[in-house]
Design a protein that fits this description.
367 residues, alpha/beta, Nucleotidyltransferase, domain 5, globular
Amino acid sequence: MGGPGVSERTSVGLDVHARSVAAAAIDGVTGELVQSRLTPSYDHIAGWLRGLPGPVAVAYEAGPTGFGLFRYLTAAGIRCEVVAPSKLQKPAGDRIKTDAKDAIHLARLLRLDEVTAVAIPGVEQEAVRDLVRAREDCRADLKRARHRLSKLLLRHGIVYCGGAAWTGQHDAWLRREALPQLGSPVTRLAFDSGYESVLATKARRDRLDEQIEQIAADSEFTPLVQRLGCLRGISTLTGLALAVEIGDWHRFTGGTIATFVGLVPSEYSSGQLRAQGSITKTGNGHARRLLVEAAWHHRARYRIGKTMRDRWNLAPAAARIRGDEGNHRLHQRWVRFIERRKRHTVANVAVARELAGWCWSLAVMDD
């Protein structure tokens, strides 16, 4: 009955979209194939599944529809797998793709137990992850709003030369000096619109930062965030983001965590030829960006300042010692890359790859 490792009689593949669901069911005893077009209603899907010869196993691809269907079916006592799309085996010569064919393909792979399931985040983890990603989106929005305003002034020959931009001094210059230089009242309206957008987006970012700080200080993720903070470049925001993006760190090792975030070199080898290319950039792109940004902090000479000591005071002694070892090691890696005249972007990715391993060692450490 079914394939290796599959105990259910009927294997079901669902191609889930926002407004429709293509379903295909294969009976492991009779070999009969049943297809249907369903609505996205969880009740409708579960009702259709109950009409099939049981027990039933279901698989659908991870995507923008999230994990609500998985949680609903699991609560109803139906085994459900959320499959990693990048790990699905597909015939190289197949050039026809439809929702119905995708559902059948999923059902067949599930029957053979040839699917790779993704890790399902907990409800609280997913909620915090949404908040952290909202802050990331807000950061990008603020960058775009600032660029629009500065380029508006640049088109009229107005350039700030008084130091770093977007400081209190720069803000005063925008209101007192830049605005009066715009001759047309219509252009001033455009400036007001851009300036208000900058202020509103910055206020939204600050509110999100405050909420994230509160969650990081008092939640189930607090011990992990405090341990990760023993490494340079891992602030409270970065630590919480890594905690909720990675989820269960114990499913990795110090070597495989870099593969998950796409920081390992791609490889095209055949016979005696071994050729490595750029990093794969597979897996969790949010975590990869955070690690790459954090790796830049290890380029400067390692000194233990007040900020680092404050973080260490929140973490266990073993985490402090481990973090200090990692900080020394990662800075020395930067020094060697500079001595070898490696391109800084290439060197930083290599440091980020090793930083992922140090983060893992702190994450799996006992509290």
